[in-house]
Amino acid sequence: MPKVVLVTGGARRLGREIALGCARAGWDVAVHYHRSRSKAEATAAEIRALGRRSVVIRGNLRKVTDCRRVVRQAKLRLGRLDALINSAADFYPTPLPTVSERDWDAHLDLNLKGSFFCAQEAAKVIRQGAIVQITDATTRWRKYVAYGISKAGTRAMVEILQRELAPRIRVSAVAPGHVSLDGEEGTPPSQVVRAVLRRLGRN
Fewer CB atoms near the end CB (10 Å): N or C, the chain? Predict the structure, then answer.
């Protein structure tokens, strides 16, 4: 039976590329989204066209209850869960002098808290598998203070979870920096997908 991966933020941009890359590599994919339902449905349709199963699951990952529900729904609807890819993230400029509490909460609640509680719940339902965290080369981003701090937190989180969950679950990070999407300069999405698949291991 094909293995199942949950990709948070899998409806669009880098998350979509990762979800499709997993499908091409033989995984069935649960596509998480928050507001982008039509894009999530389109991504799932592309995955099914590749011969893989796919479901879409809505959730606001700033809420712990939604983190838990999204993970449980992925397993319930696809019959198992073998891997989690934490790709959902908030990203917008927050220069140091103007960082507000709202900016801080927006980034930390999704990028760090959401990733942690999805991982916590996934660790309860994955018998043996992988958790991959999309993080970043945080020191590169000037004027993205809240984002940078949140991603630095995810890097520490990965190190802690590696110790807590080994050897049953492999926990690792991919830090792509700026990804080339919509004609932008940066790391090619295909390179990021290959790095994620290496960390997932063989299907």
Answer: N
Distance CA 180, CA 56 (A): 25
pTM above 0.85, yes or no: yes
Largest CA distance in the chain: 53
Task: Indicate which residue of 33, 92, 144, 147 is catalytic.
Answer: 147
Name the nearest CA neighbour of 110 among 94, 86, 144, 130: 86
Residue in the block written with tokens 């190190």: 159
Calculate the CA 162 to chain-centre distance: 17
In the annotation, is 144 catalytic?
Answer: no
Query: Structural domains in the chain?
Result: 4-200 (3.40.50.720)
CB count within 10 Å of CB 183 equals 5
* Beta partners for residue 28, in sequence order: 4
Q: CA torsion sign, 174 to 144 to 36 to 121? A: positive
Place of tokens 């916590």: 120
